[in-house]
Amino acid sequence: MALTSSARLPAAGASRVRRRPARRLAPYGFVAPFFVLFAAFGLFPLLYTAYVSLHRVELQTSDRMDWLGLQNYTRLFEDPFFWNALRNTFTIGVLSTVPQLLMALGLAHLLNYRLRGRTFLRVAMLMPYATSVAAATLVFAQLFGRDYGLINWALHGIGLDPVDWQADTWASQIGVSTIVTWRWTGYNALIYLAGMQAIPGELYESAAVDGASRWQQFRHVTIPGLRPTIVFTVVVSTIGATQLFGEPLLYEGNAGGGISHQYQTLGLYLYEQGWSFFHLGRAAAVAWVMFLLIVVLAGLNAALAARRNRTGG
Fold first, then answer.
1. I need a surface site. Which of 20, 87, 228, 248 has the fewest CB within 10 A?
2. Are residues 102 and 166 in the same domain?
3. Beta 55-56 vs 66-67: how paired, if at all?
4. Which residue range is the domain that position 26 belongs to?
């Protein structure tokens, strides 16, 4: 019996030793599918787009590539329509991001109180976000119609002249920004609401004891407590504005962004270069310029976060 027991002990120890490498490799096996999919559908297209941007590639003959080096980028920076699209992207981004986040902050502050039907209101906040981009844009395009739009009808009712919401530069950009604001305000409001509910209630009680009004509590307690969330939403909204495509494309159904390119964004400019003019190499260069802009914005977010950590805010 002693011999049998002593013979089993080394066998059991050896099996445990064999199981240790398997346990160490198991977490990598669990995350491996993500990295495989990321490499196939994220990293490879990104690198291949960079490769295509260095060649002359036409949509009709996509199997033929002629080496150009950085010529696509130099032509891009010499194209006034690229700078027009970049400027439009910036202005539409500001016109949509600033009102959107301010209204989201105000709505979140109201929802943070104990109101009747809070659950219904929170669900209603997500309805615009859940609505199809195509459906929302087509409805707003009808509302902003020049001749029979509801907006111009209301302006006429108060004695104002009708506005050409498609042809005028600022009016068309305001129209596109309105669609973006309508879709994303509720989404950001719920993000702010989650951040507000994470702020300790003792801070508000202490402020109330010190005689602070609700507005003072909002300024000196809520806003500082939401600072990381506000930075996050600003950066994410700015990145979304950089990639804006569906709303301006469907606003008038024109990849050029209007008759005089008055609301053409970088996304529309990329689409026009690749699928209207068939210059895939130049479109790939636009895509990489947009990617670098997003990297700069992400770096700005990291810098703001690092500064916040240093100052303890």
1. 20
2. yes
3. antiparallel
4. 2-52
